[in-house]
Amino acid sequence: MGRQDDPAPDGDPTAVAAIDLAPGVLWMIFTFAGLLGLHRSFAVEQAGHAMDGLLASPTSRESIFIGRALTWRKLLLAFDIVFVAGCVVLLPFMFEE
Questions:
Q1: Residues with Cβ < 8 Å from 72, sequence gap 6 or more?
Q2: Residue 26: pLDDT band by 50, 70, 90 thresholds?
Q3: I need a labelling partner for 24 at 20 to 30 A (CA). Which of 1, 47, 48, 59 fits?
Q4: Are 3 and 37 in contact, with CB atoms under 8 Å apart?
Q5: Distance CA 39, CA 51 (A)
Q6: How much is the pTM?
Q7: What would the 3-class secondary structure string for the chain be?
Q8: Residue 56 burial by CB count (10 A; 0-12/13-18/19+): exposed, middle or buried?
Q9: Nearest to residue 54, comparing CAs of 44, 64, 39?
């Protein structure tokens, strides 16, 4: 019988506990969600020629970039908060014995 902190009861040294995988999976989800959202945003803007209108406006390119970056950071932060709150609520039920 394995120790309490062994990931597998049979003592498999290559097994990884779910709690050790959670941070990496969380970062993968955040990155994937960000990339999907960013791609979708650019696709919609490209179809509507929104970037052409922004570049023709009298604002500088730096302010356009900063505005877009801050907007995406806010959206990703909102997604991260919702996802982490869901994990905090649901994970204890998943690991009950």
A1: 34, 37, 38, 41
A2: confident
A3: 1
A4: no
A5: 14
A6: 0.58
A7: CCCCCCCCCCCCCCCCCHHHHHHHHHHHHHHHHHHHHHHHHHHHHHHHCHHHHHHHCCCCHHHHHHHHHHHHHHHHHHHHHHHHHHHHHHHHHHCCC
A8: exposed
A9: 64
**Residue pLDDT, tens place only, 50-76:** 888 888 889 898 998 898 889 888 988
CA distance 45 to 39: 10
- Whether 28 shows a pLDDT value over 80: the answer reads yes
Answer left, alpha or beta for residue 12, where phi above 0 means left and psi between -120 and 50 means alpha.
beta
Task: Say how many residues make up the chain.
Answer: 97
The residue to which tokens 């999907």 are assigned: 36
CB 37 within 8 A of CB 29: no
